[in-house]
Amino acid sequence: MIQLAIIGPTASGKSDLAIKIAKKIDAYILSIDSLSIYKEIDIVSAKPSKEELEEVRHFGINLLNPDEYFSVEIFINLYKEVVTACKRDKKNLIIVGGTSFYLKSLLQGLSDIPKITQELSLHVKAKLKNLQNCYEFLSSLDKEYMKSISPNDSYRIEKALLIYEASKLTPSEWFKQNPKKPVIENLPIFNIDVGRDILRDRIKKRTQKMLASGLIDEVCRLEQRYRRLPHSMGSIGIIEVLEYLDGRVTIEQMIENISTHTAQLAKRQQTFNRTQFESVVSAPLEELEDIILSSIHSQK
């Protein structure tokens, strides 16, 4: 089974390229996009169209409701399920998307966690009713580890507390004794290299297309159904529309803000992709298809 990853900043053409190559090498596609995983967030996430999703089987799209939690652990388990499906169906696999942090998690892996009994889980859930106390307790034990966790992040606080209660070790000590194990090794990674001016132009055009496709109506539906508390409701494209709906900005300012914030995101993605991966092949979009296909041919 051939596996490869295509990365690049938002609006760089990753999805179209992945579909083209998937057709040529008989592959499934696993999306690594922090928004496409959610149902109903279609326009904001620039999700592949229904027709595109029917052309090639995609995984990692429309799996969760917008108010459900998504984590690295969930993604890694999803990847393992996709690999099983590929082997069963004799398919290759293309991993594609803009949230390269999830790709990095596959390459680095996760540490094992201690065995959690149902009794212990219930005990911890009872303690979590006072989240602030739990956060302060863990901070007193392991200040360095808790520094990167928000006092409101109930998911990560629960995980840290479970580790401590099950092992009687601080999270830092547990992870030191149980280092990460890679989930996948020797994965070819191809990065779309695109100039900043070209990318800004694509982002502006995509923002206008999103607006014409019903962006404001989509955000209204999401807010009505899920309110503003879920993590997904703080995404670029949603927060700017909510500002417009609150009367804080004009529609022209809203459009400009979406384009600007998306361009800033793209810059962060480019920096991450450049600094966090080794042996990445980077090339312009129009050259990358031939490079990928040649690389696959040379492996056979």
Describe the structure.
- By secondary structure, this protein is an alpha/beta fold.
- Helices cover 56% and strands 8% of the residues.
- The protein has helices spanning 14-25, 50-55, 72-89, 100-108, 118-127, 131-141, 143-146, 154-167, 171-177, 196-212, 215-226, 239-245, 251-275, 285-299; strands spanning 3-7, 27-31, 58-59, 92-96, 189-192, 280-283.
- The protein has a six-stranded parallel β-sheet, sandwiched between helices.
- α6 crosses α8 (154-167), α10 crosses α13 (251-275) and α12 (239-245) packs antiparallel against α13 (251-275).
Structural class: alpha/beta
SS elements, strand count: 6
Regarding CATH, which class of the largest domain?
A: Alpha Beta
**What CATH architecture of the largest domain do you see?**
3-Layer(aba) Sandwich
- End-to-end separation: 11 Å
* Overall form: globular
DSSP helical segment count: 14
Largest sheet: 6 strands, parallel
Unreliable sequence segments: none
Kindly report the spatial arrangement of strands forming the biggest sheet.
3-2-4-1-5-6
Radius of gyration: 21 Å
Identify the CATH homologous superfamily of the largest domain: P-loop containing nucleotide triphosphate hydrolases
Helix and strand run: EHEHEHEHHHHHHEHHHHEH
Oligomer: single chain
